[in-house]
Structure formats: structure tokens, C-alpha cells
Specification:
The chain is of the alpha/beta class. It is built from 11 helices and 10 strands. It has a 5-stranded mixed β-sheet, with helices on both faces. The chain has a 5-stranded mixed β-sheet with strand order 8-7-6-9-10, sandwiched between helices. Strand 4, helix 3 and strand 5 form a beta-alpha-beta unit. Helix 2 packs parallel to helix 3 and helix 7 packs antiparallel against helix 8. The chain is globular and about 65 Å long. The protein starts with a strand and ends in a 29-residue tail after the last helix. The chain binds 5'-O-[(R)-(carboxyoxy)(hydroxy)phosphoryl]adenosine and zinc ion (ZN). The site of 5'-O-[(R)-(carboxyoxy)(hydroxy)phosphoryl]adenosine (KG4) has 19 residues, from helix 5 and helix 6.
Length: 343
């Protein structure tokens, strides 16, 4: 079964082909980061318009690269939500248009389900069950992943996502967008231990996070100290330490609580070198295995949608109507996911 996957929930247009017997045939991506950089963040209307420009050329590219034709497709999976409404509508309309024209089933996917299953595309792949730490510009979650369609939220952010906290704090420190890599870079010349920022909710007794207070604490420091370059580097280093302490601490708590031995780190913040060092050290000390799927699979991409769609179809998930109408779900709680009986 050959599945086309389309991801347009935020600022990346991703298209991929997954074949249930041959695996991932390929995936292509267009990132809008450069386009949004001037504005310091994603501008939703610009995002939608750019998806419109990219999605069909990318679909043609991936079909050509894989030596396939539209008529070879057995099904089309697309991101139905959550995400930016206008951006989601682009992928949804293309998917339903193709499905209608080709007479093929269409499946609306939950973006987080794509993220949770994408580590299986990587090598080495974890096996079910595992704990997933999903940390990106839009997500900060710890989940127990027991199988396709079997996801349990263990904890999540009560306010800003981890990447969002990096981006906003980087902005306060006068750095560009996206702020995560820039802040991590500046932190390298910071002097550890010069300042102390809180470790929000590290000992809250649950697996939730809160990062917006850290950003406010940084703002207070900047206002009090009027820091020079070295001072800003010191703040960046302490801010990064605080976030990493909380993410690593709660990941270990999640593994203890679930008694699982595999941790998968997904999302753009998973690229952070200090987070990787700290998690790998914790894994050695505490006897668990940590998986860092290739970045191309853990940031937003079409492969995860094609793959999750194929797994869902094999499980007998309901296809969507083909009467030319469709909807998107900008807000969509993973807990309300329609799980087939056999799951
Ligand atoms: O998964 P991702 O590429 O996409 C979306 O969230 O859509 O994640 C992007 C986020 C941004 O907030 C970026 O600042 C953060 O991941 N990020 C990092 C690093 N690289 C990317 N944060 C900290 N350290 C990094 N090295
Ligand atoms: Zn995402």
C-alpha cells in the first residue's frame, strides 16, 4: 500500500511517500524559517500562502524522485490538526482534492501521533512501549507510547513550550529567530554558576512543565544588570542549564513512574547538545537507553504523516468522506483521538 503524506500544520511544508512493504520511499521538505525570521516568529497568513505555493511542486518532486505516478497512490494522509487553521486548510484541501480526483481514501492525521510514531522510521528504532519527550517550538510533552493508537499523556507544559521559551528568551537577549540554536551558541561562552535561575516545577511531584516564569526571570535580570556581551552569555548559559535540568529530571521521573527503559527525544529542542549530554549521562547512570532519531524525522516533516497514516490504515482506521467537503482541527486533544477497536 502506497501512502502520500502531507504536513502543513505550521511553518514547514512536508510531503512524503511511504510504502507498507518497501518502507519510506522518500520525503521532501520546505522550511519557511527564513521567511518568518524578519518578523521574529511565524506569521500565520504568510505561512498559509507559502504552503499553497509549495505543496504541489513538492508532491510532483517526491513522485518523480520515487519513480511513482499519482495513480499509484493507494491513500492520502494529511495533518488535520492541531496547528494553524489556514496552514492546515492547505494540506487538507490538497489531500481531499487528490483523493476525490483519484478515487482514493483520505485520512486526517493528528500531528502529535505523527511525532510519536516517527522514531520508528529511524535506526536504531525503539520498540513499544517507550517514553517520548517531545520538545519543539510548539510542544513540550512526556508521553507513554505503548503501540499505534495507544498514547498516554504523562505530563505537558502549562504555558510556553520549551522551544518557545528558548525563542522568546533569545529575543530578550537580542538574538535572532529561531532562538534555540543562537542561545545555545551564546551559552558556550557563558560562565557557569555566576547566576541562579529557578528550575520551574522540577520537584512538583507531577510530570508537567512551566517555562514562562523563566523568561520573566531573565527579563528581570536584564533590567537589573543591563548586561554586556559576557553578562548576556552568562544569562544564556544559566537559562539553558535550567531548562535542561528540568527536561532531564522529568524524563527520568517519567521512566521511573512507568518502569520503562527506553526514552525517545523528538522535536527541534532535541538537537540541543547540552540536553543530549545530560540525558545520555542520566541513561548511563540509571540504566536506560535514549534514542535521538535523525533530526529530519523529529522536526516537522511529511514522512511521519505518511508513516502514521499507513500504520493507521493497516489498523483499519475509518477513512474520511469523499463528498468534496472537509474540515481541520486547529485545536485537537490527543486524548480524543478516535482509536480503532483493535488498538
Ligand atoms: O521541531 P521544530 O523544528 O519545529 C517546530 O516547533 O515547529 O522545533 C523548533 C524549535 C524552535 O523553538 C528552536 O528554537 C528549537 O526548536 N531549537 C533548539 C535548538 N535547535 C532548535 N532549542 C535549543 N537548542 C537547540 N540547539
Ligand atoms: Zn510538530
Amino acid at each position: 500500500m502506497l501512502v502520500l503524506g502531507i504536513e502543513t500544520s505550521c511553518d514547514e511544508t512536508g510531503v512524503a511517500l511511504y510504502d507498507t512493504s518497501r518502507g519510506l520511499l522518500g520525503h521532501v521538505l520546505h522550511s519557511q524559517v527564513a521567511m518568518h525570521a524578519d518578523y521574529g516568529g511565524v506569521v500565520p497568513e504568510l505561512a498559509s500562502r507559502d504552503h499553497i505555493r509549495r505543496v504541489l511542486p513538492l508532491t510532483r518532486d517526491i513522485l518523480r524522485q520515487a519513480g511513482c505516478k499519482l495513480a499509484d497512490l493507494d491513500a492520502i494522509a494529511y495533518t488535520e490538526g492541531p496547528g494553524l487553521a489556514g496552514a492546515l486548510l492547505v494540506g487538507a484541501s490538497i489531500a481531499h482534492g487528490l483523493g476525490y480526483a483519484l478515487g482514493r481514501p483520505v485520512l486526517g492525521m493528528h500531528h502529535l501521533e505523527g511525532h510519536l510514531l516517527s522514531p520508528l522510521l529511524s535506526k536504531p528504532a525503539p520498540s513499544f512501549p517507550f517514553v517520548a519527550l517531545l520538545v519543539s517550538g510548539g510542544h513540550s510533552q512526556l508521553m507513554r507510547v505503548s503501540g499505534v493508537g495507544a498514547y498516554e499523556m504523562l505530563g505537558e507544559t502549562l504555558d510556553d513550550a520549551a522551544g518557545e521559551a528558548f525563542d522568546k528568551t533569545a529575543k530578550l537577549l537580542g538574538l535572532g529567530y529561531p532562538g534555540g540554536p543562537a542561545l545555545a551558541n551564546l551559552a558556550e561562552s557563558g560562565r557557569p554558576g555566576r547566576l541562579t535561575l529557578p528550575r520551574p516545577m522540577l520537584n512538583s511531584g507531577d510530570l508537567d512543565f512551566s517555562f514562562s516564569g523563566l523568561k520573566t526571570a531573565v527579563l528581570t535580570l536584564i533590567n537589573q544588570q543591563r548586561p554586556d556581551v559576557q553578562g548576556r552569555a552568562d544569562i544564556a548559559a544559566e537559562f539553558q542549564s535550567a531548562i535542561v535540568d528540568v527536561l532531564a529530571g522529568k524524563s527520568w521521573k517519567a521512566l521511573k513512574q512507568t518502569m520503562l527503559k527506553q526514552l525517545v527525544v523528538a522535536g527541534g529542542v532535541g538537537a540541543n547538545a547540552m540536553l543530549r549530554e545530560r540525558l545520555s549521562a542520566s541513561a548511563r547512570r540509571n540504566g536506560f537507553t535514549v534514542f535521538y532519531p535523525e533530526l529530519e524525522f523529529c522536526t516537522d516533516n511529511g514522512a511521519m504523516i505518511a508513516f502514521a497514516g499507513a500504520l493507521r490504515m493497516q489498523k483499519g482506521s475509518k477513512m474520511q468522506r469523499q463528498d468534496g467537503s472537509f474540515s481541520v482541527r486547529p485545536r485537537w486533544d490527543l486524548a480524543s483521538l478516535d482509536i480503532p477497536e483493535s488498538a
